[in-house]
Amino acid sequence: MSTNGRRSLRKANLRIEAFVVPPLNNNVFILYEDGSDKAIVIDVAQGAKQLLDRLHELDLRLDMIVNTHGHTDHTAEDEILRKSTGAKLAIHELDAYRLALDDEASEQLHIEKIPIEPDIQLVSGSEIKVGTNNSLRVVHTPGHTEGSICLYQERLGQLFAGDTIFSGGYGRLDGRGADPTAMIQSLKLLMTFPPETEVYPGHGSFTKIENESWINEELKEPNHAQ
């Protein structure tokens, strides 16, 4: 179901509310479990109002905001949502510094950044609880930035991929901290996941690992950056 750019998805007892947020068409997500009033948000972008409105409609309490990486188009309204909900803010330890610095995205969006500090610095293997019976595992996937991560729900075969992988492409490799060699290794890692794994990227259409088989042929020469 889609309402004003929102999709409501369900797999087993895990619920996903997915939004597309302008101006860069970021995908942002609310995750919660049937029977629980606790939720997490993956990437706020400039969607704090939409997220707050939907959390209120669903009578959910936000526990945590998780950034897939530190670029401003994904983090611009982190502090608005944190102050409004009391949620903890989490980001990989290698991208934590980005929450205090201007970058290409802040310049493009004309955002004057107010430096903030995360409450939680994630590492590869960190577990993020979603309700009682679901959790996401942090997978460190550097390349787009040093601290880019994916969030993996192994039992349900779901991957929240940030800007590591898109449908038909992957994140830009020309910004501060980008590393084409690291991106190759990250993409190789993702291609070891089960083919039916559902991929929810930071921009663009949802996909599956099996639909991105182009990666196997083109890993040696990154030229699909977006």
Short recap of the structure:
The protein is α/β, with parallel strands linked by helices and 226 residues long. It is 19% helix and 31% strand.
CATH class: Alpha Beta
**SSE arrangement, N to C:** EEEEEHEHHEHEEEEEHEEH
Provide the structure class: alpha/beta
CATH fold field value: Metallo-beta-lactamase, Chain A
Q: List unreliable stretches of 5+ residues.
A: none
Neighbour order of strands in the largest sheet: 1-2-3-4-5-6-7-8
Largest sheet: 8 strands, mixed
| Mean model confidence by pLDDT | 93
What would your notes on this structure say?
This protein has 226 residues and is an alpha/beta fold. The strands form 2 sheets. The protein has an 8-stranded mixed sheet with strand order 1-2-3-4-5-6-7-8, with helices on one face. It has a single domain (2-218), classed as Ribonuclease Z/Hydroxyacylglutathione hydrolase-like (Metallo-beta-lactamase, Chain A, 4-Layer Sandwich). The chain is globular. 19% of the residues lie in helices and 31% in strands. The chain has helices at residues 48-57, 72-75, 78-85, 104-109, 180-190, 214-218, and strands at 2-3, 6-11, 14-21, 26-33, 38-42, 61-66, 88-92, 120-122, 127-130, 134-140, 149-153, 158-162, 198-201, 207-208. A hairpin with an 8-residue loop joins strand 10 and strand 11 (149-153). Helix 1 runs parallel beside helix 3 (78-85).
